[in-house]
Amino acid sequence: MSTSPPPAPERLRLDTKFFFGIGSAAESIALYSVSAFAMFYYNQVLGLPAELAGLAISASLVLDGISDPLVGSLSDRTRSRLGRRHPWMLAAPIPIGLSLIAIFNPPAELGQWALFAWFAISVTLMRQFMTFFHTPHLALGGELSRDYLERSRVMSWNNFFTWAGAAGTAFFALSFVFKATPEYPRGLLNPEPYGPFAWGLAVVAVVILFASGWFTRDQIPRLPKAAENLPPFSPFEFFGDIAKVMRNLNYVWLLVAFFFLSLMIGLRTGLNLYINTFYWELTSEQLRWFILGSASGYIAGFVFAARMHRAFDKRLTMIVWATVYSVGPALPNILGQLGVIGPQTPGLLGVLIAFSVVGFAAASILSITVMSALADVADENELKFGLRQEGVLYATRSLAAKVDQAIGALLAGMVLLWISFPTKAVPGEVPDAVVQNLALWDGALAAIPGLIAAAFYARYGITRAKYEATKAQIAARRAAAGEAVTPPPPVVVEIEGVVDIDAAPGPGKA
Questions:
Q1: Which residues neighbour 433 within 8 Å (Cβ) at sequence distance 6 or greater?
Q2: I want to staple 340 with a disulfide (CB 3.0 to 4.6 A). Which of 130, 335, 398, 452 is the partner?
């Protein structure tokens, strides 16, 4: 059983949530640069066949996904003066930066298979190193608070900075890095900026990752610690940890739902630049303005997610927004295939951005809800097994996501092969039948696994009332064992119901 210091106050300090959240900005800078640009770079710029580029990304995701639960179990069992999570978070940044640089700086004149090997190995290393930060970081977010709604606020910060890292990367890249030139009217097809772009991203990511780990160290004394009688990591203990989390049906439903959702995300991510460049015929400068849609959507999630959990509970929130997330982004492609809109439609960019607001808002609210729900599952497991398993819970969820995103990335590459999409294509010169098939796969067909996910989210059974009952039982058990119970919450000043600042000293800052 994990030994626990006094549980978290009802509301955390603003700086704690901020510095926890910015770690996700760096994660998304690194991961988004690969998911959004690497396949396009290797296929359309360097000439690697799409199926090989997709296979390289898929292999990296599968190997990375396998390591997630291992790192989660190791993190749960780590004993150090820096606690369970921070040793991993502080060791990972520099290897992450170096491997990110390698991805976009392959040696010149590599043959097809050597180029494939470089891409596969470098992207696999980057994802492996990111796991050493990402899994403990998510587990840290799950254990910062034991309050039903405060967990949603913590994950709102995490989700907002996940968006900020990806959106900031996209806007900067499309505005200043991949600018149109006389030789390359579509700046993304210019090979020269990719190498310096990766160096800049690596430096920024390393600095932010260190900051997230360093400035959340003051929380270490009040976080759960590995119990002295907890056995050390071993294959037997690892599979025992996995068995415990998989015996929780609420977790299983979340896992299966996220599996299908990630299939949709992986397919759409792999086809995103293709659909915008070759179907809608947008330029790099136009693509950068999608930041307006993503900003609006993720701000909506940041502001409203916890309020929705208070009004409707997390289960209904997941069902509704998984459905919206599946259907909303598919609608422009469906309308395009029906002839309602097309590349020559006046104000097309504004129409696409408006649809993107809906999609990004749905993604934001759904992500916050699921991440908050996982922390509630951790309480159920503590009550049942006497063990805090945030590391394994979040990591096993990441395993399912990455395996399925691997399938999605591989499927994206195979789709491009099936529809005979040309390598080094020229916008406006791709056959109409090919781009129509591209729109079908990125639109209606990609929505199907998302709708299946919504059906599985409907099976999740932790209501707020059940959570409060679990919380009370855990508190009673701790009180009977002589452990401290939750202190009265600190005085909080609330700004618009979302941003909060402690007016009294918080833990570790008397």
A1: none
A2: 335
In a domain, 391, yes or no: yes
Give residue 240's identity as a one-letter amino acid code: G
Phi, psi of 499, rounded to the nearest 5 degrees = -85, 130
Cβ contacts of residue 122 below 8 Å, gap of 6+?
99, 102, 103, 106
**Tokens in use for 110?**
């590599």
Q: Is there a domain that residue 335 lies in? A: yes
Residue 1 lies in a domain: no
Counted domains in the chain: 1
Nearest to 237 by CA among 69, 101, 87: 69
Render 353-410 in DSSP notation, one character per residue: HHHHHHHHHHHHHHHHHHHHHHHHHHHHHHHHHS---HHHHHHHHHHHHHHHHHHHHH
C-alpha gyration radius of the chain: 23
Task: Count CA atoms within 13 Å of residue 484 on its CB side.
Answer: 11
Task: Indicate the pTM of the whole model.
Answer: 0.68
- Domain residues for the domain of 309 are 14-220+239-502
Alpha carbons 411 and 207: distance in angstroms, whole number: 34
Phi, psi of 423 (to 5 degrees): -75, 145
For residues 9 and 507, is the Cβ–Cβ distance under 8 A?
yes
Q: Residue-wise over 239-272: b if at least 16 C-beta within 10 A, else e?
A: eebbebbeebebbbbbbbbbbbbbbbbbbbbbbb
Q: Which two tokens stand for residue 324?
A: 């919206």
Return the residue matching tokens 């977010």: 141
Residue 500 carries which DSSP code? E
User: In the chain, what is the straight-line distance between the N-terminal and C-terminal CA atoms, in Å?
Assistant: 29
Tens of pLDDT along 249-274?
998 999 899 888 888 888 888 788 88
The answer to whether position 230 is within a domain reads: no
Question: 44-96, pLDDT tens digit by residue?
Answer: 899 998 888 888 887 887 777 778 888 888 888 888 888 889 999 999 999 99
**One-letter identity of residue 223:** L
DSSP state of 431: -
Assign residue 447 the CATH number of its domain.
Answer: 1.20.1250.20
Contacts of 437 (CB under 8 A, 6+ apart): 418, 419
Tokens 């408006």 locate to 354
